[in-house]
Amino acid sequence: MDRVTLILASASPRRKELIRQLGLPVEFAVNNADECAQGNLPPEQVVERLAERKARAAYEAIGPRENAVVVAGDTVVVYGGEILGKPKDEDDAFRMLCLLQGKTHAVYSGISCIACADGKVLTGHSRTLVTMKPLSDAQIRRYIRTGEPMDKAGAYAIQGLGSAIVEKIEGDYFTVVGLPLAMLADMLAQLDVRVL
To answer: What is the pTM of this model?
Structure first.
Protein backbone atom coordinates (compact mmCIF):
# COMPACT_ATOMS: atom_id res chain seq x y z
CA MET A 1 0.00 0.00 0.00
CA ASP A 2 1.23 3.54 -0.74
CA ARG A 3 2.05 5.96 2.08
CA VAL A 4 -0.76 5.43 4.57
CA THR A 5 -2.23 7.94 6.98
CA LEU A 6 -3.29 6.66 10.38
CA ILE A 7 -6.41 8.31 11.76
CA LEU A 8 -6.46 8.00 15.53
CA ALA A 9 -9.98 8.06 16.99
CA SER A 10 -8.94 9.24 20.44
CA ALA A 11 -8.55 12.43 22.44
CA SER A 12 -5.96 10.77 24.69
CA PRO A 13 -2.72 12.78 24.69
CA ARG A 14 -0.85 9.57 25.52
CA ARG A 15 -2.21 7.67 22.50
CA LYS A 16 -1.52 10.68 20.26
CA GLU A 17 2.08 10.77 21.41
CA LEU A 18 2.53 7.01 21.06
CA ILE A 19 1.05 6.63 17.57
CA ARG A 20 3.44 9.28 16.24
CA GLN A 21 6.31 6.97 17.20
CA LEU A 22 5.36 4.65 14.33
CA GLY A 23 6.66 7.25 11.87
CA LEU A 24 3.56 7.31 9.65
CA PRO A 25 1.45 10.39 8.90
CA VAL A 26 -1.22 10.78 11.59
CA GLU A 27 -4.52 12.62 11.73
CA PHE A 28 -6.89 12.77 14.66
CA ALA A 29 -10.64 12.18 14.65
CA VAL A 30 -13.12 13.19 17.30
CA ASN A 31 -14.47 10.14 19.11
CA ASN A 32 -18.15 10.49 20.02
CA ALA A 33 -18.74 6.78 20.62
CA ASP A 34 -20.56 5.54 23.70
CA GLU A 35 -17.83 4.23 26.03
CA CYS A 36 -20.11 2.22 28.32
CA ALA A 37 -19.65 -1.53 28.17
CA GLN A 38 -22.84 -3.52 28.36
CA GLY A 39 -23.38 -6.75 30.19
CA ASN A 40 -21.01 -8.79 32.29
CA LEU A 41 -18.28 -9.21 29.70
CA PRO A 42 -14.74 -10.35 30.43
CA PRO A 43 -12.23 -7.48 30.26
CA GLU A 44 -10.67 -8.57 26.97
CA GLN A 45 -14.10 -8.37 25.31
CA VAL A 46 -14.81 -5.00 26.96
CA VAL A 47 -11.66 -3.37 25.54
CA GLU A 48 -12.08 -4.98 22.14
CA ARG A 49 -15.73 -3.96 21.82
CA LEU A 50 -15.12 -0.40 22.99
CA ALA A 51 -12.07 0.02 20.73
CA GLU A 52 -14.05 -1.27 17.75
CA ARG A 53 -17.04 0.94 18.62
CA LYS A 54 -14.73 4.00 18.64
CA ALA A 55 -13.08 2.97 15.38
CA ARG A 56 -16.43 2.35 13.63
CA ALA A 57 -17.80 5.73 14.77
CA ALA A 58 -14.76 7.49 13.29
CA TYR A 59 -14.84 5.38 10.12
CA GLU A 60 -18.53 6.19 9.54
CA ALA A 61 -17.80 9.90 9.97
CA ILE A 62 -14.83 9.78 7.57
CA GLY A 63 -16.29 7.49 4.93
CA PRO A 64 -14.33 5.61 2.25
CA ARG A 65 -10.81 6.93 1.72
CA GLU A 66 -7.77 5.52 0.00
CA ASN A 67 -4.55 4.99 1.96
CA ALA A 68 -5.98 5.61 5.42
CA VAL A 69 -6.52 3.39 8.44
CA VAL A 70 -8.62 4.32 11.46
CA VAL A 71 -7.08 3.25 14.77
CA ALA A 72 -8.86 3.28 18.14
CA GLY A 73 -7.99 1.92 21.55
CA ASP A 74 -9.46 1.31 24.96
CA THR A 75 -7.81 0.39 28.27
CA VAL A 76 -9.10 -0.97 31.56
CA VAL A 77 -7.51 -2.02 34.82
CA VAL A 78 -8.79 -5.21 36.47
CA TYR A 79 -8.36 -6.27 40.07
CA GLY A 80 -10.32 -8.95 41.93
CA GLY A 81 -12.71 -9.36 39.03
CA GLU A 82 -13.65 -5.65 39.08
CA ILE A 83 -13.04 -3.53 36.00
CA LEU A 84 -11.64 -0.17 37.03
CA GLY A 85 -12.15 2.52 34.41
CA LYS A 86 -11.54 6.22 34.91
CA PRO A 87 -12.44 7.44 38.41
CA LYS A 88 -15.68 9.42 38.77
CA ASP A 89 -14.16 11.74 41.37
CA GLU A 90 -11.34 11.97 43.91
CA ASP A 91 -13.08 9.60 46.34
CA ASP A 92 -13.38 6.99 43.58
CA ALA A 93 -9.68 7.48 42.69
CA PHE A 94 -8.79 6.98 46.37
CA ARG A 95 -10.89 3.79 46.49
CA MET A 96 -9.18 2.41 43.38
CA LEU A 97 -5.65 3.21 44.52
CA CYS A 98 -6.33 1.72 47.96
CA LEU A 99 -7.45 -1.47 46.21
CA LEU A 100 -4.37 -1.62 43.98
CA GLN A 101 -1.59 -0.55 46.36
CA GLY A 102 0.74 -3.37 47.33
CA LYS A 103 -0.91 -5.80 44.91
CA THR A 104 -0.74 -7.07 41.34
CA HIS A 105 -3.46 -6.23 38.85
CA ALA A 106 -4.00 -6.68 35.11
CA VAL A 107 -4.20 -3.98 32.47
CA TYR A 108 -6.00 -4.76 29.21
CA SER A 109 -5.70 -2.58 26.12
CA GLY A 110 -7.78 -3.22 23.03
CA ILE A 111 -7.03 -1.94 19.54
CA SER A 112 -9.26 -1.82 16.51
CA CYS A 113 -8.09 -0.88 13.01
CA ILE A 114 -10.33 -0.22 10.01
CA ALA A 115 -8.95 0.14 6.48
CA CYS A 116 -10.87 3.10 5.08
CA ALA A 117 -10.61 1.89 1.47
CA ASP A 118 -12.53 -1.37 1.98
CA GLY A 119 -13.81 -1.35 5.57
CA LYS A 120 -11.73 -4.36 6.66
CA VAL A 121 -11.67 -4.52 10.48
CA LEU A 122 -9.03 -6.04 12.75
CA THR A 123 -9.50 -6.02 16.52
CA GLY A 124 -7.39 -7.48 19.32
CA HIS A 125 -6.12 -6.94 22.84
CA SER A 126 -3.02 -7.15 24.98
CA ARG A 127 -2.69 -7.89 28.71
CA THR A 128 0.05 -6.83 31.13
CA LEU A 129 0.41 -7.45 34.87
CA VAL A 130 1.34 -4.48 37.06
CA THR A 131 2.48 -4.67 40.68
CA MET A 132 2.02 -1.48 42.66
CA LYS A 133 4.15 -0.53 45.68
CA PRO A 134 2.52 -0.48 49.12
CA LEU A 135 1.26 3.09 49.70
CA SER A 136 0.02 5.01 52.71
CA ASP A 137 -3.28 6.89 52.60
CA ALA A 138 -1.26 10.14 52.73
CA GLN A 139 0.79 9.12 49.67
CA ILE A 140 -2.37 8.21 47.77
CA ARG A 141 -4.01 11.54 48.64
CA ARG A 142 -0.88 13.48 47.58
CA TYR A 143 -0.88 11.65 44.26
CA ILE A 144 -4.58 12.39 43.72
CA ARG A 145 -3.97 16.09 44.46
CA THR A 146 -1.65 16.23 41.41
CA GLY A 147 -4.71 15.61 39.24
CA GLU A 148 -2.92 12.92 37.24
CA PRO A 149 -5.19 10.01 38.28
CA MET A 150 -8.45 11.66 37.26
CA ASP A 151 -8.64 10.68 33.59
CA LYS A 152 -6.77 7.38 33.75
CA ALA A 153 -8.08 3.83 33.97
CA GLY A 154 -7.32 2.53 37.46
CA ALA A 155 -6.51 6.09 38.61
CA TYR A 156 -2.80 6.10 37.76
CA ALA A 157 -0.48 6.90 34.84
CA ILE A 158 2.58 4.67 34.56
CA GLN A 159 4.17 7.14 32.12
CA GLY A 160 3.83 10.04 34.55
CA LEU A 161 4.25 10.49 38.29
CA GLY A 162 2.49 7.13 38.63
CA SER A 163 5.79 5.54 37.64
CA ALA A 164 6.91 6.24 41.22
CA ILE A 165 4.19 3.96 42.61
CA VAL A 166 4.70 0.98 40.26
CA GLU A 167 7.04 -1.72 41.52
CA LYS A 168 7.18 -3.89 38.38
CA ILE A 169 5.36 -4.96 35.25
CA GLU A 170 5.15 -8.30 33.46
CA GLY A 171 4.34 -7.74 29.82
CA ASP A 172 4.19 -4.83 27.42
CA TYR A 173 4.72 -1.35 28.92
CA PHE A 174 2.74 0.26 26.08
CA THR A 175 -0.30 -1.85 26.98
CA VAL A 176 -0.33 -0.09 30.34
CA VAL A 177 0.09 3.35 28.71
CA GLY A 178 -2.87 2.53 26.47
CA LEU A 179 -1.61 1.70 22.97
CA PRO A 180 0.40 -1.53 22.54
CA LEU A 181 2.61 -0.46 19.63
CA ALA A 182 4.06 -3.87 18.74
CA MET A 183 0.56 -5.33 18.44
CA LEU A 184 -0.61 -2.30 16.45
CA ALA A 185 2.34 -2.68 14.04
CA ASP A 186 1.43 -6.36 13.53
CA MET A 187 -2.22 -5.46 12.88
CA LEU A 188 -1.21 -2.77 10.40
CA ALA A 189 1.01 -5.30 8.60
CA GLN A 190 -2.08 -7.50 8.14
CA LEU A 191 -3.66 -4.50 6.39
CA ASP A 192 -0.58 -4.17 4.14
CA VAL A 193 0.78 -1.19 6.07
CA ARG A 194 4.46 -1.58 6.90
CA VAL A 195 5.87 0.26 9.91
CA LEU A 196 9.35 -1.19 9.28
So the answer is: 0.92
pLDDT for the residue numbered 136 = 97
First-residue to last-residue Cα distance in the chain: 13
Which position among 2, 74, 92, 186 bears the catalytic label? 74
Q: What is the pLDDT of residue 65?
A: 86
48 close to 124: Cβ distance less than 8 angstroms: yes
Asked whether the predicted pLDDT for residue 184 surpasses 80, the reply is: yes
SS3 of the chain: the string is CCCCEEEECCCCHHHHHHHHCCCCCEEECCCCCCCCCCCCCCHHHHHHHHHHHHHHHHHHHHCCCCCEEEEEEEEEEEECCEEECCCCCHHHHHHHHHHHCCCEEEEEEEEEEEECCCCCEEEEEEEEEEEECCCCHHHHHHHHHCCHHHHCHHHCCCCCHHHHHEEEEECCHHHHHCCCHHHHHHHHHHCCCCCC
Annotation marks residue 74 as catalytic:
yes
pLDDT, one tens digit per residue, over 137-160 is 999 999 999 999 998 999 999 999
What's the confidence (pLDDT) of residue 13? 85
Question: For position 34, what pLDDT does the model report?
Answer: 66
Alpha carbon distance 66, 69 (integer Å):
9
